[in-house]
Amino acid sequence: MDIPPRITFSGMDPSPALEERIREKMAGLSRYHPHIVGGRVVIERLQKHSRQGDLYTVRIGITVPGGEIAVSRERDPDVYVALRDAFDAARRRLEDRERKERGTTKLHEEEVRGHIVRIFPEEGFGFIASEDGREIYFNRDNCAHPSFERLDIGDRLRFLVAEGAEGPQARRITRKADHGEAEPPGEASFLP
């Protein structure tokens, strides 16, 4: 961010330490959204409460191309905690906005089906031929139900595919129930 943030203190004297912390935190936000064009921070000390002492509210407004992000942390007895929490919320909002702008919002993974074509029990890995014709690597750590030791060539499986270091890799593997066989317990929890 090229333009320094506007900092306003309400109900309290300006604090050089708080101003420095705000500048550091605002500069750190540029890692999460590269196009911040402006910002303002308001720190307000509310009237002293007889039981709780001073309470602080922090409001942050961040201007980015196409809009503004506004967050606040209300009525915290520690001004530094309120400031930290408000900047954490601003960071999350900036990350969400940046992902949305890039079109990289998280999509739900789709279940894939296939059968085991090769398995190497001593080494703890094998390969699955998926219904779409790919051959997908798996290892013992990827087996949800049954355990790796109970799998055999030809077993029909359901699984998710993740990109591994050397290509696609099956994960969260479950054996597909045969006719009349009950589904493994808990399996439906991650199926569409």
**What would CATH call the homologous superfamily of the largest domain?**
Ribosome hibernation promotion factor-like
- Determine and state the CATH class of the largest domain: Alpha Beta
Spatial shape: elongated
**Can you summarize the main beta sheet?**
6 strands, mixed
CATH architecture of the largest domain: 2-Layer Sandwich
User: What class would the helix/strand composition place it in?
Assistant: alpha+beta
The strand order across the widest sheet is 7-6-5-9-10-8
N-to-C SSE series? Answer: EHEEEHEEEEEE
Helix-residue proportion: 10-25%
Overall tally of structural domains: 2
Strand content: 35-45%
Number of DSSP-assigned strands: 10
What does this structure look like?
With 192 residues, this protein is of the alpha+beta class. It folds into two domains: 97 residues, Ribosome hibernation promotion factor-like (Double Stranded RNA Binding Domain, 2-Layer Sandwich), CATH 3.30.160.100; 79 residues, Beta Barrel (OB fold (Dihydrolipoamide Acetyltransferase, E2P)), CATH 2.40.50. Helix content is 20%, strand content 42%. The chain is built from two helices and ten strands; from the N terminus they run βαβββαββββββ. Strands 7-6-5-9-10-8 form a six-stranded mixed β-sheet, with no helix packed on it. Helix 1 packs parallel to helix 2. The radius of gyration is 27 Å and the shape is elongated. The C terminus is likely disordered.
